[in-house]
TrEMBL record:
Xref: PANTHER family: GAG-POL-RELATED RETROTRANSPOSON (PTHR11439), INTEGRASE CATALYTIC DOMAIN-CONTAINING PROTEIN (PTHR11439:SF440)
Originating species: Vitis vinifera (Grape)
Identification of the protein by name: Reverse transcriptase Ty1/copia-type domain-containing protein
Database matches in InterPro entries: DNA/RNA_pol_sf, RVT_2
Residue stretches making up the Reverse transcriptase Ty1/copia-type domain: 23-264
Length: 505
């Protein structure tokens, strides 16, 4: 209130209170004997556009949910959100089928949920009613900060959209689809951010009309930014980039004296566990979190480096910090890269790879996989294996099992999306190990590999049921290679282009 932006903050506070009062979020009552009210506080935040300009001033009245007691004023708290993989698949399908993609935002989403428990809250600062100073707010609807708020909001939205003829996707409960005579429409929900896809503008207009009559909505028109990811549409399809986010992260860690790098990880360095004192552990964890968000959204090319470096979060050393600086230098050098989708190919292809005993100290191998659709990566992973493999073949087979698991999920997702339901075929997975290929198609069980027998049986079942097929690819053409080991500059460029990471034309 003492800042130069006081007029904007007052307007934001009044907007928030108007939403709360019009929503009949609480009623003033005397506090029942034996009950204890929770507190509340105002939280202020500036929201920015992806170019760094101020978008809005946001004020939120937040309940002090950390004072709630389980079993008394809250029970279940789980609420699902759409997977980022699902969001990428939708953009790939929008590129292939030339779909319209619009965006909506739910104003004060969590205020819509109905509360089943009795929760009492103190009156908010600056809005204590004269003559009722000793009364408390009995919450009728949920409020930001309450433990159960996300769950109650999702239940309310779920019930509302299903009543309009939409149905769940079987594997991602935050994807809803509806098929009418003249259009098909998909709604994807991530907390209060919403994507609406349709092959006809009529489907988008009617869905927006329904949502606007049910909730207080903000129509953002054609999609521009989702979860901090900039979306651009061109003649070929959609492109996703995090240029502004990367600039923000590089600026945050500028004290590391970041130098441009051509690869995310130096292949000549072997990182080991730090037995000495940790160096800026909290800041290291923050750096890993910042890099993980880029790696999980659009920058598949840094997945291996982030996976590797995250293993030292509890006790980082100077060497680990140097490696973090290297990843940031690579991102700074390649910040303009976008994950681009086009019309072809219209089928999902997978790549699987493993690096045998790549983890110094515990002798564990690394699994890597990537799936592409519409010329761009839609799903990827780089993970340390959980069991010791006795040979390269076993490590590759463990990786193949993890890749098959993801392939099954992707296939099930696609089979329940109206635009692709009728033309989902067997997912082709490419592997660069002939021995693994022979083992996968062999019905003979070898007792020497009994510690991976469940994985062996699982892969065979996926092949027999027509869910996956496995084919050989040379290591030079395996797009999963950068997820298991550090590569040279030329190979990083080639695999990145193969995954759809390109400069926008």
């Amino acid at each position: 209130m003492a800042s130069r932006d006081v007029a904007f903050w007052k307007e934001a506070i009044n907007d928030e209170m108007d939403s709360i009062m019009s929503n009949q979020t609480w009623e003033l009552v005397d506090l029942p004997p034996g009950s204890k009210p929770i507190g509340c506080k105002w939280v202020f935040r500036r929201k920015y556009h992806t170019d760094g300009m101020i978008q809005t001033f946001k004020a939120r009245l937040v309940a002090k949910g950390f004072k709630q007691r389980e079993g008394i004023d809250y029970f279940d708290t789980y609420a699902p959100v759409a997977r980022t993989t699902s969001i990428r698949i939708l953009f790939a399908l929008a590129s292939i089928h030339n779909l319209f993609v619009h965006q909506m935002d739910v104003k004060t989403a969590f205020l819509n949920g109905d509360l089943n428990e009795e929760v009492y809250m103190e009156q908010s600062e600056g809005f204590v009613l004269l003559g009722n100073e000793n009364k408390v707010c009995k919450l009728v609807k949920s409020l930001y900060g309450l433990k159960q708020a996300p769950k109650q909001w999702h239940e309310k939205f779920d019930h509302a959209i299903l009543s309009d003829g939409f149905r769940h996707n079987n594997v991602d409960k935050c994807l809803y689809s509806k098929t009418c005579d003249d259009y098909m429409v998909i709604v994807c929900l991530y907390v209060d951010d919403m994507l609406i896809l349709s092959d006809d503008m009529k489907g988008i207009i009617e869905t927006k009309r329904f949502l606007s009559t049910t909730f207080k909505m903000k129509d953002l028109g054609e999609v521009d930014t989702i979860l901090g990811i900039k979306v651009k549409r061109n003649s070929g399809g959609y492109a996703l980039n995090q240029t502004h986010y990367i600039e923000k992260v590089v600026s945050k860690f500028s004290h590391l004296k970041i130098k441009d790098a051509n690869t995310p990880f130096d292949s000549s360095i072997k990182l080991e566990k730090n037995d000495g004192r940790s160096v800026a552990q909290l800041e290291y964890a923050s750096a890993i979190g910042s890099l993980m968000y880029a790696a999980q959204c659009t920058r598949a090319d840094i997945s291996f480096a982030v996976s590797k470096l995250s293993r030292f979060t509890s006790n980082p050393s100077v060497e680990h910090w140097k490696a973090i600086g290297r990843v940031l230098g690579y991102l700074k050098n390649t910040k303009e890269l976008s994950l681009q989708y086009s019309k072809f190919p219209a089928i999902i292809e997978g790549y699987s790879d493993a690096s045998w005993i790549s983890s110094v100290g515990d002798n564990l191998s690394t699994t890597g996989w990537v799936f592409t659709l519409g010329g761009g990566a839609v799903s990827w992973g780089s993970k340390k294996q959980t069991c010791i493999s006795h040979s390269t073949m076993e490590a590759e087979f463990i990786a193949l099992s993890a890749t098959g698991k993801e392939a099954e999920w992707l296939r099930d997702l696609m089979m329940d999306i109206p635009f692709t339901a009728n033309n989902v075929s067997t997912v082709s997975i490419h592997c660069d190990s002939q021995a693994t290929l022979a083992r996968a198609y062999s019905g003979v069980y070898n007792g020497k590999s009994r510690h991976i027998s469940i994985r062996h049986e699982y892969v065979r079942q996926l092949i027999q049921n027509g869910i996956i097929s496995i084919s050989f690819v040379r290591s030079s053409g395996n797009l999963a290679d950068p997820f298991t080991k550090p590569l040279t500059r030329d190979l990083v460029r080639i695999t990145s282009r193969g995954m759809g990471l390109k400069l926008l034309k």
